[in-house]
What does this fold into?
Amino acid sequence: MEEIFKKDRNSLSDEEIVYCVLKGHVDYFEVIYNRYAKKIYQKCLTFTKNKSESEDLLQEILIKIFTNLYSFRNKSSFNTWVYSIAHFHCINYLKHNKTKFQKNTLSIEDVLYIESEKTEQAEGDDDNDKFLFNLSVEELKKVLDLLPVEDKAILLLKYQDGLKINEICEVLELGESAVKMRIKRAKEKARILAQKVQENPNFHISYAK
It folds into this structure.
């Protein structure tokens, strides 16, 4: 493996970079930074809507990745491992700063219950996909902001990060059926909220504490 240090570091796989860092070549972590910092920052910004807080979160996540490299065991791809750390860090941050990011009007429980009662027959999952994909960028951003943290996070893993179902299973440490059900329910909630946003662009909800 020592031949690895003779190669162009930018041509190395993530796993090879991890090996180099753990062998004491800490400067190789710069490659990890260059590959993931922008994506992680974008994920943080999607949650916080605040550049300064997103930059702080990015640094915290990168430090967590660096200090936990020794625990990476190749059981999943490094990409999935990184997204797992970023995912839970953002979730925990939002849970501890809930009131900072939410506006108070009608509760989400009320909205979802009322709308589900109106619908006698549930729409198919493909219909939810088509409906959401046809939203404008602004409408989609609004819907994501209105969703509960866990629902927003799992949709971002699938559609923003482009993770496959099995990779999301690894990130969330859940079975395939559980992940598929969570995604389905999140999309159903998103569709209900999207319809509300289309009816009233100023629509807001609050979440039970």
About this structure: The chain has two domains: 2-97, 102-206.
